[in-house]
Amino acid sequence: MKLNTYIDHTILKAIATVADITKLCSEAKQYNFYSVCVNGAYVGLACSELMKSDVKIAAVIGFPLGAMTTKAKVFEAKQCIEDGANEIDMVLNIGLLKSGYYEIVRDEIAKIKKTIGSNVLKVIFENCYLTNEEKKIACQLSIDAGADFIKTSTGFGPGGATIEDVRLMKDIAQDKILIKASGGIKDIDTARAYINLGASRLGTSSGVALVTFK
After folding, report:
1. Which helix H or strand E contains 76, and what residues bound it?
2. Which residues carry out catalysis?
3. What sign does the dihedral 159-42-81-29 (CA atoms) show?
4. Is the pTM of this model over 0.90?
């Protein structure tokens, strides 16, 4: 298992500076992480820093609440791709999902996927706010909408990824959609556990610590 190839090396906090983003990209190149994951304002900078590398760029949209309008999310996704992002991590509308407005939630995901075309779309659930039944519904809506990944959490809610949630998501996903575990992944055993359960990607700000653990 080459752990580095699973990692989306991430910095999304509000106080992240230009120097922090530059360091993130430098580390991603040094350790050959799969991607960096940044806020939209820093996609251009990341693109410049990673120009001569194989490291991908993921941008978050509708982050971290998911409560923006669909038009705003579509615009944000389009702008991030134009600026050089290869992947989009979107937060679904949690309130509409919990309200039972499933068609609207599905259509929003589908519109964003259509906007970014062949680029990868990951749908963030924020599982700590959802019941198990809502998690299952979110999985199926993401599959139906043509998304590429389902993702456990933003890392900004009161809870992150859990073994139980990744197992539940895999039960629904099967081979129809990939899984990204994110939020609170800080040690090698946890990272390996998620991969063994079927996660294809790990979102973490602790990537360097994970791959240099001895």
Report:
1. helix 70-83
2. 89, 151, 180
3. negative
4. yes
